Amino acid sequence: MIVELQCLASPAGTPDDPYRHIDAAIAVVRESGLKYEVGALGTTVEGEPDRLWPLMRRVHEACLAAGAESLVTVVKVEQTAGAGPTMASLTGKHRADGA
Fold it and tell me: Which residue among 45, 53, 61, 72 has the highest number of C-beta atoms inside a 10 angstrom radius?
């Protein structure tokens, strides 16, 4: 399964750390040990559904715990019955390094 998460925290951070709340969400993804890519408008994560569904909640809650006053999280989910595509198979040909 592949998910893309976009956390729209308000505010995104603090005056001293403009992306503090977003960085807290990305830290949860990093600590999950799952394969992920941070993009300009969201973070994509690849893994088993039993790990991804609870991760999405933890990511959302991390922004609030970091001090966001309000939060909307946009979630996209790609899942197939069998072995589905990977991040690399979907985007690899569009990258300069081919990865």
Answer: 45
Q: Quote the CA–CA distance of 12 and 27 in Å, as a whole number.
A: 15
pLDDT (tens digit, 0 to 9) for every residue of the chain, 99 residues total? 999 999 999 998 999 999 999 999 999 999 999 999 999 999 999 999 999 999 999 999 999 999 999 999 999 999 988 877 888 888 888 877 766
Alpha carbon separation from 91 to 40, 50, 78, 94, 95 (Å, rounded):
15, 24, 14, 6, 7
For residue 65, give the CATH number of its domain.
Answer: 3.30.70.930
